[in-house]
Amino acid sequence: QAQRLDAQVGACIVGACIHNKAPERAMAIFEEMKSWPKFDGPDVNAYSALVSGLPRFGYAREAVQIASDFCENYSKLPGYDKKGLAPSALSQLFRALRSEHLVRELGVPLAARLRKAGLAFDDR
Hints:
There is one protein chain. By secondary structure, the protein is mainly alpha-helical. It has one domain (about 5-115). It has helices spanning about 5-20, 25-35, 45-55, 60-75, 85-100, 105-115. It starts with 6 loop residues before the first helix and ends in an 8-residue tail after the last helix.
């Protein structure tokens, strides 16, 4: 009987990749997790780890895409309890967007998606 992986394991793997300065690996694992057998998929913690970690390595655009995907899919995530992305993750992302002068191009549309999904955030 195969053991079941849970979302916490996936989030830990993604977080470990970010911690070890391997953002490309974190993104690859995140995508791979979606097809793991006996696994419900990434949870809010995996999304938050990427959204906060990727901008530190120059991947703000990818972090925005992941945050946007979260807006579309969060009600279907494992352990869904109306919990949004970690506030610190979004703060770090919006800070990176400001420093890279991408607020108008990426930040404003993301803020609209977050609001439409009913997710609280602080874009300061």
